Structure formats: C-alpha cells, structure tokens
Amino acid sequence: MKPNDITPNPFALIPLAVFLFSYLAVSLAAGDFYKMPITVAFVISSVVAVWMSKGGNLHNRIELFCKGAANTNIMLMVVIFVLAGAFAQTAKAMGAVDATVNLTLSVLPHNVLAAGVFLASCVISVSVGTSVGTIVALTPVAAGLAQETGLSLPLMSAVVVSGAMFGDNLSFISDTTIVATRSQGCKMADKFKTNFHIVIPFALLTLLLYILAGSGAAHSFSHGEVSWVKVLPYIAVLAAAVMGVNVMAVLLGGTVLCGAIGLITGAFDLWGWTTAMGAGINGMGELIIVTILAGGMLELIRYNGGLKWIIHKLTAKISSRKGAELSIAGIVSFANLCTANNTIALIMAGPIAKEIAQKFNVAPNRAASLLDIFSCFVQGIIPYGAQLLMAASLTGVSPLQIMQYLYYPYLLGLGALLAIWLEYPRKYALGDTLSTTEAEI
Fold first, then answer.
1. Cis ω for the linkage preceding 425 (within 30 of 0)
2. How far is the CA of 187 from the CAs of 208, 356, 428, in angstroms?
3. In this predicted model, what pLDDT tens digit does every residue of 351-391 receive, in sequence order?
4. What residues have CB less than 8 Å from 224, skipping those under 6 apart?
5. Distance spanning both ends of the chain, measured CA to CA
C-alpha cells in the first residue's frame, strides 16, 4: 500500500499501547523491573498487531509483519549488534576493559570521575558518529570503574548513554545528522551552528550534575598498572571511526585486533577467543529479538494508519511558526516512539517537516536541528531503544534503572522546547536566514 493510500486510523496504535502497558505499567505496578521481560512484552504487542491488522487473511498479515521485521535498516542494526557483542566480549576477555579502567583511574580525579566519563563519551561519539558504537566501547569501561570506585552502576551506564546521545546529535558523520540535513535541504555546517547554540548550555549543566552525582566516589581507590597494548583496540577503533571507516568494518577489525593481542599476551588461546566471541554474540540475543519484533509490529502500525493519524492530529491546527516548530518536534518524537530508531524516525518525519517548515517560514537549518534534537531526545530515554538496551545488556541492569540518571537527554528535550518558545537562537530562526543546498551531506 502506498503512503497516500493509507487512511488515518487511531486504533492502529493499540499494539503500541499494549506494549507500553505490558512493559512499563506492569513493571511499575509490580515494583520490579524484571517481572515483565521486554521480549515478552513485544511478543504480546506483536500478536495483537497481527491479530487486529488489515491486509487480508492471517498469512498475508504475517507476511506484512515479516516484511517490517526484515527491513534493510533493521537487518543492518542486527548485524552491528552481532559484531558489537563479539568485540565487547573479546575486549573484556583480553583485558582491554581492565586496562582502560586503570588508565582512566590514573588520569581522572576521583571526585569528577562520572563527569570525566561523560566528557569522554561526548568526544568519542562526536568523533565516531554512532551512539551505539560509543556505548559498546565505553560501557564495559564505565562498569569496571563503578565496581572499582563504588559508584552506582546505573549512574555510570547513564553517563555513557548521555554522552553518546550528545555526539549522535552533533556529529557530522552521524546518520541522524545526514538524514536531517538532507531531508531539509540545508548545509551541515548551518545545522551544526544552530544545534550547537541550543545544546551546549545544557551539556555544561549536565557536566555539573554528573560532578555532583559522582561525588560518591570520594573514598580512596587504587588502580593497577596500565597495559598500553591492551588499550590499543579502543584507540584503533576510535581512530578508524574518525577516519570514516564503516562501523561494521571497525567492529570486525577491533575484534580481530583484540583476538591477536589476547593470543600474543596469553590472555586466552584460540578456543578461548572463539568462546568469548560466541558469548558476546549470544549476549546480544535479547536486543536482536526486540529489534526484529519492533520492526514487524511498527510496520503494521504504519500500514494500518496509526502514524498517519497522529501526524494529521499534530498538523491540523498550526497557525504560527512556533506552532509549526512544535509540530515538527511532535511528529519526529512520535515517529521515534513508534520505531525506536531515530534514523528511521527522521526518514519518516523529514518530508512532512519540510512541508511545514516551508509553509511557516522555518529555516531549513533550524528544522533540521529540531528534528535531530528531538529524535535523539526520545531515542535516548525510551527503555526499548537500542542505546538503553545495549547499555543494559552490557551491565546487567534494567533500562528503567538507567533512565533515572539520563540527565542530558532530559535537558536536551527541555532545552529544545525553550529554544522554540524563546525563538533562540534568533539569527537562525527565519527561513531566509541561511542558504541551503539539497546536495551537501
């Protein structure tokens, strides 16, 4: 069915409501975030989606579900998760995590450790352009630091996720930046300037909050000897990503380098290496299952008109530029809530946002900035998003436990709303302010 043939239908959103109730509401009511596994919640909501969907007989509806589950972007994410698991576990078995923890403890003052990890996560994510890659690389290190210093494990996990979302939003090589700027036809540099003015004050405030939150590490701690050769895989992964190497090639190369160092240093033998890779891949199982089920369920929501209905409601009563900007924020936020993937959400919301921006004289660079900011805000706080699921799978804590410490994503959303209300920064707010180009990436 073509997008123009889809009829807006609020009842198509029932599967999403079923998921939110079965996962969030049940967990909160039970007072235990492990009572309802997220995979079971997605199975329940997926069954409801197939059962109530249009599209012919049961066989056809299941085929439509499978089409969404096998979407190219979904499969790409699955492959990245597999490689990320292999890299993370191999690095841990080889001793890279312990070596990096020792290096970090030797450099950072103990009373600003959480803030230091947040700053490192910001720099890394801006450099590599991927929040998931940053989380894979830094979360094991943050977990090790938490164990050594007595800091809260959910806090340290949230510190990494917060910094990762900073870079996901600002990086020139981030998928979200590329999609947002292309969909609005603006230059990356113009979008960056607008984005930078909005987010930097709140990033600095987040840094201060993490200094205060990390004060629990004030007791003394010691660190072991720094083994530079075992830190090398993380350095190599960062360098390769900064040079623009494909993320899958980066993760595969990092796994091979970790394996080679582990064999040379005697950290493990060949079979120990393969066992570590297998354990890492298996550890991504829940994340992969959730990603596939979400892709199928959300395709049925789209096909049955759920997304089109909410877009229609958000755009029906626009009468000002501020209203247009709030609608752009609402559209991409809802799309992200439904897809649990900020890149896909931007692809879906981008063309609609461009029409709204042109009609109400919203600058392309500002529209692109708002799209990117709100997609990263939602992606950074939803407990079924790849970022929180990845951090949770690497640390063994619940995504909902991590959420209470996600200071930066919350402030990012608040900051963007204030920017809309105050028309800040004013020099980048009007549609004729900056030149645009459809071709620049």
1. yes
2. 32, 19, 13
3. 778 878 888 889 999 999 999 999 999 999 998 788 998 89
4. 98, 102
5. 30
